[in-house]
TrEMBL record:
Organism: Orbilia oligospora
Alphabetized Pfam families for the sequence: DcpS_C
PANTHER family: APRATAXIN-RELATED
Name assigned to this protein: Histidine triad nucleotide-binding protein 3
Highest taxon listed in the record's lineage: Eukaryota
Molecular functions per Gene Ontology: catalytic activity
Length: 192
């Protein structure tokens, strides 16, 4: 059974977001086939086009456009996303061990638009590779060896950011901010 999720409605219990024009999730146009988990901050759903035996999307209810838009102030939410991922994996895949995770599990984000700096002032613009402009952590178990599975390459960080590296980037930025006394709003968003 499919349902629409409207994050801006009174029924959802979540206030309207600031960027609903291009976000199908926030507008309520995002069709959900199965919801595995929901709390006041997150929802976990099945991907409509799974790239493996299991393919979940862990999504914050608050609008964040992409992984590039995460700041150190989002660390509690991001850590919660990772904790919920681990809880669901423990329930649904108790046989997934540290030794088998590398071969069976892909977890990360498609990259949003950003500038890559080559040398000094030289830079080029990298376009979006995300189809849903709302942050969502992919959790894929037993990835297909087809073209669909190749959309989530752990080896190509230009298009797919691994969740552990995102956490490291946010923690490093947080340490720098605390050392300088700045806030994430003052410095903007850093590249991964």
């Amino acid at each position: 059974m499919s349902t629409n999720l409207n994050n801006g409605s009174a029924a959802s219990g979540v206030s309207p977001v600031s960027e609903p024009l291009e976000c199908s999730f926030c507008k309520g146009d995002f069709i959900i086939t199965a919801e595995l988990y929901r709390d006041e901050d997150l929802v976990v759903i099945d991907d409509r086009r799974p790239a493996g035996r299991t393919h979940w999307l862990v999504m914050p209810l608050r609008h964040i456009r992409s992984v590039e838009d995460l700041t150190p102030s989002d660390l509690p939410l991001y850590r919660k996303m990772l904790a919920v991922r681990e809880q669901l994996l423990a329930v649904h895949y108790p046989d997934l061990t540290p030794a088998t995770r590398y071969h069976r599990l892909r977890t990360g984000f498609h990259r949003g638009r950003r500038d890559l700096h080559i040398v000094g002032p030289l830079k080029f613009h990298v376009p979006d590779v995300i189809s849903v402009k709302h942050l969502h952590l992919h959790v894929i178990v037993d990835v297909d060896s087809t073209i669909r599975g190749m959309k989530y390459p752990l080896w190509n960080e230009l298009i797919f950011a691994k969740s552990d590296l995102v956490l490291k980037r946010l923690e490093d930025e947080d340490k720098k901010l605390k050392a300088t006394g700045e806030t994430s709003a003052e410095t903007g968003h850093a590249d991964l």
